[in-house]
Batch of 3 targets.
Target 1
Amino acid sequence: MTQTLSGLAARVADLLTHPDLAPRQSHSAPWWRQSLAHGIPGVALLHIELAAAEVRPWQRVHDWLSAATKAPITSGPDSHPFYGAPALAHPLACVAEQFPGAYKRTLDGFDQSIRAEAHRRVAAAHRRIDSGDLPALAEFDALQELTGYGAYLLRRDPDAPVVAHILTYLVRLTAPISHGEDEAPGWWTLSGPSGRPDDRFPDGHANNSLAHGIAGVLSLLSLAARRRRRVRGQLHAIRSICAWLDRWHDASGRGSAWPYWVTRAQLRSGHLKSAGVSRPSWCYGTAGLARAQQLAALALGDSDRQLTAERELLDALTDRRHLAATTDIALCHGFAGLAHVAARTADDALSATAGELRAVLPALLSAVLPPGTDPENTVTELMEADDGGPGLLDGTAGVALATLAPSTGTAPHCAWDACLLIS
């Protein structure tokens, strides 16, 4: 199985040796050159990882990155960590980590615009807090806003002033805020989980997810603390978020270990109503939340919390009801993502749980590519699917990348998953 899955990654890369070989429907999409989630930057990460592992040539990396820059790249307010200059900067930075100085002129230009845009957004967020208004969900999420900017800039230049400014803002975000007659967490938003008004959430919600909610903030604050990049109140903010997640932990055995979100009615009553079993994915669900809490525990030196987080992940990955709720193989919310999060968590786990986490990997990988399945058919079907494609979050490049470390037993050779806030 491990050889088959590592071969799957190579097969995906060989089908995508050049951007011209990608499915035509991808080429026609306006986001193709600039989307880390679905386009060229995400596919480039696969080629970078395989080239860094010395199993495929670096020329493919150059071909893909060159294709992305054949026309102007979006920067400024219309860009974000998964689109435009920040999105393309991520794979360029992965190359530069292997070859210092590579793409230096382009990367320096991107970094300058990214820092300027992050400063602008932090200033706007502080003005919003000063006015007493509630935030938009997009103000702080990991894919489009300041948590994502922080993840990239922490990796590129952790001592830069802009990193401290982002961390300081995120600390302020965790302070309680008045919402009518209630005291709500500072990240309470009046929109639904999509970031738009939603009749199901007339009074808004508090989002717990890693991709869009407070777990992403927790991961960034914790990753920064582990790298000794700290601002005033940072450890207190980490503890505050952990206390929130403790409060809303679902111990009923019927639903997710942590709910995707908390509604106004739940906030007022102080009680969850279990909505049934939910998929334990990276983006929303126990996998992402457990990894975020493990990182927090490591930052705080809290072995009890670390053990709890690792046990919660194990429970989710061995409970047939939770696994049955996972219906695809993608990185974002499928089995490939579960396998990668489990492998990353195992690398940092206590000795009591590390082996158990690694022991669940074969079953997760078998769900990606069941025994007897033709890898080429799997790759082709996903690449041509309307909800798949060649990209990172929902497509073949993401499946290939996410199954490499779990199937080979080795950590990634480049920091391709830093954009996911799990490393």
Note: Residues 104-131 form the longest helix (28 residues).
Target 2
Amino acid sequence: MKGLKLAAVTAAMVAVTGVAQAGPTFDAVKEKGFVQCGVSTGIPGFSNPDSQGKWTGIDVDTCRAIAAAMFGDAEKFKVTPLTPVQRFTALQSGEVDVLTRNTTQTLTRDTTLGLTGTGVNFYDGQGIMVKKEIGVKSAKELDGATVCVQPGTTTELNLADWFRGNKLEFQPVVVEKLDEVIRAFVAGRCDAFTTDKSQLAAVRTTFTNPDNYLILPEDFSKEPLGPMVRQGDEAWFNVVRWSLNAMIEAEEYGINSKNVNEMLKSNDPNVQRILGVTPGMGKNLGVGNEWAMNIVSQVGNYGEIFERNVGQESPLKLERGLNATWRDGGLMYGWPIR
């Protein structure tokens, strides 16, 4: 009997530690040959089409990284622009494989929608913008103001919480599409416009006279933004999660798109695992051993993605801040690829 019990325990351990079986989304993505990503309808620096219809931004590059991991080709992706109201239904219904649009990770979203967050690709906070001509220097001076906000967002909820917590009155002006919100704000339908601070900075760069607008100093919330997938497919969840971690880990170990081939010669065991010189990590994910190398060579590490889309190489000129690596005082901390 002891022998039988031992055999049963051993079999159970093998089952737990073995490679997870591919699930419905993983299989469907593999079969159709591309990743369908839900992105915003247009936020400069995050997901925005240019004059030729090419989409760029941090969220688009996150989608490209997933494609590079799955297929070895970062261009095997398509995007579906989604408003905040549309995004969760589109993911639940299977219209998209993953949301890589700016979506805040919250407990409610992880537990009531049949969806789950896979990590953070941008740490943000909600703010509020006004025209300088109204003479306001603090959000606490906005008692009785009208505020433009998009529905179906944590932004809408945080706005109400902040004003209530500070015993101030306000009147929401609810508009679904971002471009319509912006037009309403510029036209004077509302005194202020609220959303994530990075988004406010991006929108301000599109104005004819950006210096006429002020982002007020208050932070209304914490906004950890990142990809979301449907629950029930751990294999697909892992590909999305570890594609993000690979970009962060690559930056930590000094691997970038320019030196990735040279780094293949590194004696660092961590670098060897990340780049697939030491095999096994790709098999565990159900992809090729070069999955992370493909991400870095074709898309870049996290720092490269940040700088070209929203950092000093972009019109937004955002500081790394919370999005710096943990070694540099930020919150970006790649999980070990081992």
Note: The radius of gyration is 22 Å.
Target 3
Amino acid sequence: MTVIEIDIVFDFICAWCYIGKRSLDRAIALYRKTYPGGRNDTITIKWYPFYLNPNRHGHSVPKSVLFNERLKDKSPEQRAALVKRLDKIAQSVGVCINYGGMIGSDTRDAHRLVYLSRKDPTISSEVHGELVEKLLEAYHEREMDISRPEVLKEAAVAAGIEAAVVEKWLAEDVGNVVDEEARKYREIEGIRGVPRFLFQGKYEWDGEDLQEFMEIMGKVKADE
């Protein structure tokens, strides 16, 4: 049996992180079906924080405000082409990116929940990943403001975490620890964009291609 460890650096506001997660999920399902012994391998995924293009307004604003700020140097035609490409790739992995709703001043609290789910020995890797899934879905598809505590609680409970545990986590002050992790990836490791996938601590990938994921997992299995 092979143990495959995957570390993912991401931010919730990044649509490519949502797309990358879904593509990886599909690659893992295909790997388990096609690689000899793949269904018996253990695949552990851990999610790590990154702060991508923080909201400088200091409060929740419509997503369109930040979208227009980031793409202010692009023509309407260029913006339309970017959105069309994103939507096409998203749909290919079963994701629907919606552009309405609000975006909070940061994603720190959402990352706090994910950090605590990663550190809690009673939370499985699957539930840890499902929490990430529910929060990405809430932001990108359901157009919800994931800086709001009630939205975070709803997503965490939907992921399979008890409401009392979620409430305890929301009150737990680990923000500085999460900030330090995010700083490490940006300032020490020099990451400028996400997602970044690291397999077995040595094979790195920053795209969303299913076949590339399959090939890397095949390399890990051959190494083991």
Note: The first strand starts at residue 3 and ends at 10.
